[in-house]
Specification:
The complex is a heterodimer of chains A (about 150) and B (about 170).
Chain A: E1 6-11, H1 17-25, E2 38-39, E3 48-52, H2 60-69, E4 75-79, H3 80-85, H4 99-108, E5 115-119, H5 126-137, E6 147-151
Parallel strand pairs in A: 1-2, 1-3, 3-4, 4-5
Chain B: H1 2-19, E1 41-43, H2 53-57, E2 63-67, E3 71-77, H3 86-90, E4 96-98, E5 113-122, E6 129-132, H4 133-142, H5 154-169
Antiparallel strand pairs in B: 1-4, 2-3, 3-5, 5-6
The chains are: A alpha/beta (about 150), B alpha+beta (about 170).
Chain lengths: ~150, ~170
């Protein structure tokens, strides 16, 4: 991506831990405008959606509407343990449980997401959020990889 | 009044000069990490014995233990981990340690998984796989006299005991 990324902050039933870390990342201490990142108030102006929370059933229709309003190419940064894998609510009755299940619901509603970057952490550090955006922009490389060890 | 208004930007400039530059150049600079910070956990595969104490203590079930006839599989999914460090507290062999790694962003969820497969050891009598080798070694370290029957499965031990008792009764 060459243009500046404008971000929209979407809370889907988060505990506000990750939201406060997002606000931290927007302060002059980290100064994300170095990368052209700017917080906007409407999803229609945004390139990237900062999605926090495990997507509760009550917020689901609003989340789908907000994501549909984002123009293509549509990017999502799933921030925090809740958004990535459901967190401690992963098998709860009132949540979707992470972006992976949510993506299937979006496909049913014909809302396509071009790229999702997962940022684990409970809450994710502001540096981790900046790292996630930098990964999306192609400034840094992925550090984690799958590990399988067989022990006799 | 107008003079005050005119001088206002210069006043701000002097305040800004006093504060200096506070911005950290994060991706190009090392982040500030305190020793108390808890990040991703690291499972030492040379020490882990697949007992499942960590999976029992894990609040979000990021550590899961699945047992089949052939093996015990310990899977760790960082995406669900809340970095509480309980697993490191309960681990009997000290295999789990807390690192300060937090740069875990990825585009593929599979990259966040760590899987340890512990193969079961087979019984010397009947050949049925029954427990992981590491657990047997651990038991042997705690109870040295167990070496007489450690390589037999629980069923074989029970049968042997029943045979001995039945001989005695006659």
């Amino acid at each position: 991506m060459k243009k500046s990324i404008w971000v929209f902050h979407l809370n889907t039933g988060s505990c506000n831990g990750c939201d406060i870390e997002i606000l931290d990342a927007l302060t002059p201490y980290f100064d994300v405008e170095r990368f052209g990142i700017k917080l906007v108030a409407s999803p229609r102006h945004a390139d990237l959606v900062l999605l926090t929370g495990p997507i509760t059933l009550k917020t689901l229709p609003m989340v789908i509407n907000a994501l549909r309003a984002v123009p293509r190419p549509r990017y999502v940064l799933a921030i925090g343990a809740c958004a990535v894998g459901g967190g401690i609510w992963y098998d709860s009755y009132s949540v979707i449980g992470g972006v992976k299940e949510f993506k299937k619901i979006l496909e049913e509603h014909n809302v396509e997401i071009d790229k999702i970057v997962f940022v684990p952490g409970c809450p994710a550090r502001p540096e981790a959020i900046i790292y996630g955006v930098a990964l999306l922009l192609g400034l840094v490389k992925e550090k984690v990889s799958k590990e399988v060890v067989v022990i006799d | 009044m107008t003079l005050k208004k005119l001088l206002k930007p210069f006043k701000l400039l002097s305040i800004a000069k006093k504060a200096g530059v506070v911005t950290v150049l994060y991706p190009y600079q090392k982040p500030l990490i305190t020793p108390e910070f808890r990040g991703k956990i690291v499972i030492d595969s040379t020490k882990c014995m697949g007992c499942g104490a960590c999976a029992n203590a894990c609040p979000p079930n990021a550590l899961l233990i699945t047992e089949s006839n052939e093996a015990v599989i310990l899977s760790y999914f960082v995406g669900r981990c809340i970095f509480c460090g309980r697993c490191a507290d309960v681990c009997p062999t000290g295999a789990i340690s807390i690192s300060n790694e937090f740069e875990l962003a990825t585009t593929n969820l599979d990259n966040l998984k760590t899987i340890l497969v512990h193969r079961h050891r087979e019984c010397v009598n009947c050949g049925r796989p029954f427990a992981t080798g590491r657990i047997l070694e651990y038991v042997l370290r705690k109870v040295p006299m167990a070496e007489k029957y450690i390589n037999e499965c629980p069923d074989c031990r029970k049968n042997r005991f029943i045979n001995i008792v039945s001989i005695r009764k006659r």
